[in-house]
Amino acid sequence: MNLANKLTLSRILLIPVFMLVLLIRVPFGEYIAAVIFIIAASTDGLDGYIARKRKQVTNFGKLIDPLADKLLISAALVSLVELKEISAWVAVIIIGREFFVTGLRAIAAGEGVIIAASKLGKIKTISQIVAISALLLNDFPLSLLNITFGKYAIYVAVFFTLWSGVDYYIKARNSARINLDE
């Protein structure tokens, strides 16, 4: 197993640790969980970079990397709903978009069309990671200045989530070989 795939698997293995630390309410648990989340999220870009740089892109990596991303974000959102930090509708929209886009990409792949990740998809991911991190950190260090960031950042993440979902739909629909009306 190459280094990139090991990093991806480490992201998956950090998910239960992240959730346990966050949800059992240990002292400073939300900050420890935030650090775990940020470390796990940072492996996303790193594993892809390493795989491309070393020319070690594998089918296993192509499958497990997006799955790891979705699991990490979903686990964080569900945990934040449990802690009453975000509304359930926020989590449903973000997680639902992931199912929707995954389905679109599967339909496209079945027709021999690859819908590549877009810049908008990357902005969506970054906005989600920033918002979740801010919420986990209770807006620290901005909270020292009485600045609320996380509550607004999650709505920005919802906006980019929806926008990128529509963008993927348009790309799939405009593909000459995909008929989404059937």
Helices and strands, in order, run as HHHHHH
End-to-end distance: 41 Å
**Alpha-carbon Rg, integer:** 17 Å
Q: How many structural domains are formed by the residues? A: 2
The helix content, as a percent range, equals over 70%
Task: Give the integer mean of the pLDDT values.
Answer: 92
The total count of strands amounts to: 0
Individual helix count: 6
**Largest sheet descriptor:** none
* Poorly predicted residue ranges: none
Classify the beta-strand content into a percent band: under 5%
Structural class by sheet pairing and helices: mainly alpha
Shape descriptor reads: globular
Give a short summary of the structure.
With 182 residues, this protein is mainly alpha-helical.
Commentary on this structure:
The model has no long low-confidence stretch (mean pLDDT 92). The chain contains six helices and no strands. Helix 2 packs antiparallel against helix 5, helix 3 packs parallel to helix 5 and helix 4 runs parallel beside helix 6. It is globular. It folds into two domains: 84 residues, no CATH class; 96 residues, no CATH class. It is mainly α.
